[in-house]
Amino acid sequence: MDSVVCALALAYLEGRLRGGPKAVGLLPMKREDFRYRTEITYLFSHLGIKEEALLFMDHFELKRLEGLKVILVDHNLPTGAFGELVWQVEEILDHHEDLKGALPRLQRKHIEMVGSCATLVAERFLSHEPSLRLLRANPELTHALLGTILLDSINLNPAMGKTTPKDISMVNSLKSILEEHSPLLTNQQIFQSLSDAKNDISALSSLELLSKDYKEWNVGPLKYGFSSVLLSVSSWLERGDLVESLSKFSTQNGLELLVVMLAYTDTNKIFKREVILFEMEEKAGKKLDVHLKMQKEVLDLVVMEEKKVQEIESASNHIWFYYQNNIKSSRKQLQPIVHNFLLGVSKM
């Protein structure tokens, strides 16, 4: 949700204040995948934002657009279908570890490890009176930024290790603006409604689950992806199509390596994380398996030893299952580890 809300919000700011070429927020997904993002569809429905008003990456061929200038939000390297835009990127606004990609026309870069990129977008709105007036005049946008920060930071929960003082400050400022319009729901009410929508995956197939929160990157000719799935390995095994869906999804997206980060709350209401590492052919997977198990402080992975999981691993040399004891680490922490490892392998 962070990428989508930030792209739309920053495009609104750029278009209203700077004038010149038209600024549009381009969503980093195909239109057909939008319905899988249940937290976004819920939020936009609540705010009266119509799907037909949105632009998706499969609407046009980006490389054929003349004079295109790109601002990356919630990323600091063009990925997937945007990978061909390295010459068009002029600005970055992000909260992930800097992957230090070669961007020849980059003019401005702001990377700060806050809980949500929406925090940095909100800060930009609040930094000058003209942009602040835009925010005050658009309660829907203000609500979207507020909800995104709360969802990303797990309701500003310090125990999850995502929240910074700036996230808290921006939440308080956005709430103050919204209170000028009408009585406001509590942080918990806003967070819970979005969290419930995000966790509503009952109608999604396994392939749709993998598409719901998916990002991909390239390291030279190697393409790898990350999917975040709100399900445990044991629950997925009950569906009966775990390995088949990983293989089919990797083939459809041209991936050599797929990392699936699973997050869920168990029957005792304890939040847990698990990880699946899958590769189509035997390449870097075995070495990456060893490397990831060495990341004790960041990940603290423990190999799953359940019989059914062991049987799957024994039948294939290309899949690994782990419990992740450090639940504070998300894709934001794991993806740079994988990326830098693959960079090292590619240079050998």
TrEMBL record:
InterPro entries linked: DHH_sf, DHHA2, DHHA2_dom_sf
GO cellular component, one term: cytoplasm
Domain spans labelled DHHA2: 191-342
Molecular function (Gene Ontology), one example: exopolyphosphatase activity
A Pfam family that the UniProt record links to this protein: DHHA2
UniProt protein name: DHHA2 domain-containing protein
Lineage, broadest ranks: Eukaryota, Amoebozoa, Tubulinea, Elardia, Arcellinida
